[in-house]
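P.,

For your records, the input lines for the assembly:
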Amino acid sequence: MNFELTVLGTSSAVPTSVRFPSAHVLNAYEQFFLIDCGEGTQMQLRKFKIKFARINHIFISHLHGDHYFGIYGLLSSFALQKRKNELHIYAPEELRKLVKVQLKYLDLGFPISFHYLNFDRKKKILDTKHIEVYSFPLKHSISTCGFLFQEKERERNIIKAKIEKYQLGLREIVKLKSGNNVEREDGTVLDYNDFTNSPSKARSYAYCSDTQYYNKIADYVKDVDLLYHEATYMDIDKALAKKTMHSTASDAAKIASKANANKLILGHYSGRYYDLKPMLIEASKYHNNVVLAHDGFSFSLPYKK
Amino acid sequence: MNFELTVLGTSSAVPTSVRFPSAHVLNAYEQFFLIDCGEGTQMQLRKFKIKFARINHIFISHLHGDHYFGIYGLLSSFALQKRKNELHIYAPEELRKLVKVQLKYLDLGFPISFHYLNFDRKKKILDTKHIEVYSFPLKHSISTCGFLFQEKERERNIIKAKIEKYQLGLREIVKLKSGNNVEREDGTVLDYNDFTNSPSKARSYAYCSDTQYYNKIADYVKDVDLLYHEATYMDIDKALAKKTMHSTASDAAKIASKANANKLILGHYSGRYYDLKPMLIEASKYHNNVVLAHDGFSFSLPYKK
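Structure tokens returned:
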């Protein structure tokens, strides 16, 4: 099943002609999670052919405009398209009021459930059939969360040839797949290890929005497969990173390394950098699997043994 | 001197992958007037290489999101770029509150003067050295204005050869250029018609934002050189145009014709139309100089005799 990330925007606060503000979409089992919603998100969704109607969950990391100014236009378009499905928004509490004031004259026509973020600790905020979502605190100039999307452990795979050979019943198959032995009435024991193969490992993606270098992130996203970490600045501007409570590409890579993340993707680049390759070089000193996201960057997490 | 229009967005309420929401920029004598500011305006300004710092006047026709949701991001970017110059915003009164709520935590660092629109009658709202701007009421589901940008009459051009021949003084030149005769101390009269040529005629541009077909517009923009009139729908959807208080391309062309507008440009197209040529054909039945705007469309009004 799909576990695919699309990056819609890679600019920091001030967009450029080729970089829109922050927004990511994770397609996990055909559930489309929109993570941050900077200005122009709805145009980027159109451009990269992601259907509005597939989005039922929006996560807003914090209330700096480049992470949420696109939500008004997106909600308006949902309404104009006669959306009926409930929309879940996970965000700082104040967003509810902002949306209310902004869309005062608009009859949305669909329900919104607001879920307020907690900025003190890591917390499970959503639990679906296949996916769990956690928020965790970052360290920025205002209250900010990151988000971890964790695929649930999959069941073991039954070895098909054995179904017929042993005339396995449905209950027996279910029990074996869940990792339990089956004892038959005649006393024979079917060892699940003989009848099933290990499932592919659960996959995970973490989104680390605006933050300064913050040790605890590594614990929050320990062993994550795909880590997005903001990289607003290069080392030469690290004083600026400190002042604005943002990270350098090196900071991001140090966190990724500490967290044992398999792959790191960078974004949220300051508009002062046109050529980003030197940023990649800096980050690659601290982690061996770093890529630079661009607007439209897409990565599908493979199954892994 | 420049009198050049750039269209930043041509979608109606719901943008498409190639059409952003409404925003126009008129460069009149290197004053950049931003007219409406739909979501993504700042990205379009970047794309079409119009410097933020050149914009000191923003005109918002009405408070439907596709005409102003971009203002928050633009103001934020102004602030982040350390803008100091005063910004003038001509808009419905309520925008002031919306901006205040939205940018509560942002230290803008530059002054904004709000000028509230009047929706009852045509009114001069700005008078600069070279340009006068008027607002005028349109007919839409909420209070909405159009805007007329009128170049002031230019002075007559002095015929240079005559300056030396008649040893004209500065005061004499000024008087002749303003269309007055000069009587010299010796009693000779210099006829301004002999010493000057007619100036090029004053140019004008009118922006007719969301509106249903509305007769009075033709009076408000009488003899305008360049008329933008919304054309959300084609004739086949005229029932929808009526219901939503928008115009068809034919409506726009009828107004242009009635107003004796020299050139009509269309925009604000419904996302249901992919190919716009049939729209052009419909409009061309009623006006002989119609063009379809697209995002990035630019037109420089020539001098005219």
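Two observations worth noting. Chain B has two domains: 3-154+200-300, 157-197. The mean pLDDT of chain B is 96.

Regards
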